[in-house]
Target: (2,3-dihydroxybenzoyl)adenylate synthase
Amino acid sequence: MPQTYLDGAVAYPAEFAQKYREKGYWIGQNLSEFLHEATEKYADNIAIYCAEQKITYRQFNSAVDCCVASLYQRGLRSGDKAVVQLPNHHAFYIIFFALIRLGALPIMSLPAHRFSEVNSFFQQTEANAYFCADFGTQKFDYRALARQCQQSNPSLKQVFVLGETAEFDSISALYTLEIQDNPVQPIVSQASTADQVAFLQLSGGSTGIPKLISRTHDDYLYSVRESAKICELNQYSKLLMVLPAAHNFSMSSAGALGIFYSGGAVVLGTDPSPETSFTLIRKHQVTDACLVPALVRPWMDKAACDQDDILSSLHCLQVGGARLADVVANRLIDEFNVNLQQVFGMAEGLVNYTRFGMHKDQIIHTQGLKISEDDEILVLDEDDQPVAQGEVGHLLTRGPYTIRGYYKAEEHNARSFTPDGFYRTGDLVRILEDGCIVVEGRSKEQINRGGEKIATEEVEQALITHPQVQLVSLVAMPDDVLGEKSCAFVSWQAQQDDPSEIRRGLNLRQYLKDYGLAHYKIPDRVEFIQHFPYTAFGKIDKKTLVKQL
Ligand code: OOB
Model:
């Protein structure tokens, strides 16, 4: 029976915790102290550029204090939980640290999530607060989503909105960025201790409900400090943040937290297009950027078209979240003279980076080296036996910043973790003689749509609720831009509507939208078939379906 923290998160076994402390990985600092330390060291450095605003570390920390006092006044307390679903705006970081300083647990939702996902976070955690934008950048009314969530979750008592608040509380009223002559008396930090859960990240998932990942201050900050070193961040670094800020890559690999650790600045952008990004890179003399592979081509095309050497002006371009094609990596280095870093990570923990000094072949053809010598890596065959050196197998991992189980998911944990605590990543990899890891594929039921992960089962379960759908199977189709897109194969009940309409799949897509699935999970293609192929085992034969594409 694994040890648990209060409230359903699986703890590290005591002997491992002791080892990670003795080795200096876990230093007993919580995220609130982390921000204090950065503020002491780098008070007048700019921490965040957001539109026309520049926020120093001193302003940042005092805004967090102010926000803690305001949230306390409005009734939030240590032990509360809050779903945070904000766009790339300074409010995201201020709310995140304020909740932590208050001892409340942020749940890191992404702006793309809709009712189905957000509601499941409330259901799983009984969170009592929700922080969202009015419309965000997606022209979607999050306040309507808040009302829907309130109806189905009596636990949700308070909603805070960035922008037009309607009947809800205002996020902007929670803090000011001005340094006050008589600052609000900060309430004494109630942040949880470093060995406790700091916040809940989200799993890309391979099952029906998006799983929650509890990360402790100790484990997360270890990965942040090491990542900042590997990425060679310093107080002059400026990291362009156009991926969703709450994603684990954006947060910690080395991400915004790596920047705050180093005294540098995060440059926030709300749209990853090359037009917007290049303008920000030029304006702020950005040194670092993190991207998913799907964005690399449009960036290269724009740079080539403008005959602009903007990409080589960066100290580092990080690419991760999905496999970067070798030819694209090669082009980045050869034609654009980019200092490329591949990043292969997961919200559950383990992160690998190619290192700056590596040979070009290693940077192009591998996903680099793990962070820690105590990241334990197994590459196993179907029978859980180690494969020969250099052969492809299932990646399992355990280490000082990899979780030991999902939040409140005992049954699922029995499948996703071995009894001795290794996480089954669902990735197929090979380890080269030099230790570099190469991602060769995937065994998990997941589609990686340009870095956005789709659990096939989640979409299948949503589709099957349609009254006329009989059977359904979601498969990946290769895509030049996104790497993969999704195709739903569907069979229908006998008495059908107009089959041509069904074939076009229009009503099904609308159905899934109304169901409240995030847009990126809605199948790119819908195929109507009468008879599904089956394996000898009696399961739907997805391999045969893929061949029909
Ligand atoms: C990152 O985190 P998640 O949790 O959204 O997704 C993790 C999964 C991995 O298990 C793997 O299947 C895939 O995304 N992945 C890659 C990859 N990076 C992630 N597959 C191939 N090549 C890569 N470079 O995606 C994430 C978290 C932290 C840092 C970077 C990415």
Remarks:
- Residues 31-45+57-191 form a domain with the Rossmann fold fold (CATH 3.40.50.980).
